[in-house]
Amino acid sequence: MISEEILDLPLFPLDTVLFPGMTLPLHIFEDRYRLMVSECLAGDRDFGVLMAGSGPGGDGMPTAHRVGTSARITHVHKLEDGRMNILTTGQERFRLLHLLRTEPYIIGRVEALPLEGASSPQVSALVRKVGALFVRYLRLAGEVLGNTIQIDNAPSNASGLVFTIAMGLDVSIEEKQELLSIRALPDLLARESLILSREELLLERMREAQDSNTGYLRGATQYLSLS
User: Fold this and answer.
1) Looking at residues 208-227, what average pLDDT do you find?
2) What are the structural domains, with CATH classification, of the chain?
3) Residue 87 banded pLDDT, cuts 50, 70, 90
4) Which residue of 59, 118, 138, 184 is surrounded by the most CB atoms within 10 Å?
């Protein structure tokens, strides 16, 4: 766990964005990350997940993103050849200050990045609004995809809500990284409100297109049956 103090943390750049509370399975096959996981297990330590960039950074680290989430290893399945399948859970956001080393695996000096503005008077109203938008979004997504998504209420806890939404949104990893990097809770809620409204509009259009295609196919079938 990351405290308010600065901490030295093993880092794992990945092509994904990890949020607090999110479950992330990983297949560990590179020697350096086998070593990192083994040492984390031996020392009962977390490691940090950062979204990898398109190329090496100026400090030699293969990532362009400085905000990530610490990951706790909750399950390990070791394979005979030394590879591992592990299950992790996101814990706390952090900001990378600088690197301490890159070999045999990356270690960085990080500081906790808790959500700011939780006591803002606008948070309660935003939680109700964004929670309702999220429930609507999930139901509509289920209709469009032909799945049943059972959800009656979104999490009422503000921090739980924003990270649940961030995990559930079907958007690019770049946009997910943007959400992870927003410092203030009211700003994050406001941003998610905009995204949910945008995605709801897109889903509505997709549903209308599906209905139109269904009507066309029904009419074509009737025409063929009469021919």
Assistant:
1) 57
2) 7-112 (2.30.130.40), 123-226 (no CATH)
3) very high
4) 138
Overall average pLDDT of the 25-52 stretch = 96
Preceding peptide of 121 cis, ω within 30°: no
Alpha carbon distances (Å) from 142 to 10, 60, 118, 137, 160? 38, 43, 31, 9, 22
Please state whether beta strands 47-51 and 84-101 pair in parallel, antiparallel, or not at all (unpaired).
unpaired
Say if CB 158 and CB 123 are below 8 A apart: yes
Rounded to an integer, what is the distance from CA 182 to the centroid of its chain?
Answer: 13
H/E/C letters for each residue in the chain?
CCCCCCEEEEEEEECCCCCCCCEEEEEECCHHHHHHHHHHHHCCCCEEEEECCCCCCCCCCCCCCCEEEEEEEEEEEECCCCCEEEEEEEEEEEEEEEEEECCCCCEEEEEECCCECCCCCCHHHHHHHHHHHHHHHHHHHHHHHCCCCCCCCCCCCHHHHHHHHHHHCCCCHHHHHHHHHCCEHHHHHHHHHHHHHHHHHHHHHHHHHHHHHHHHHHHHHHHHHHC
pTM tops 0.90, yes or no = no
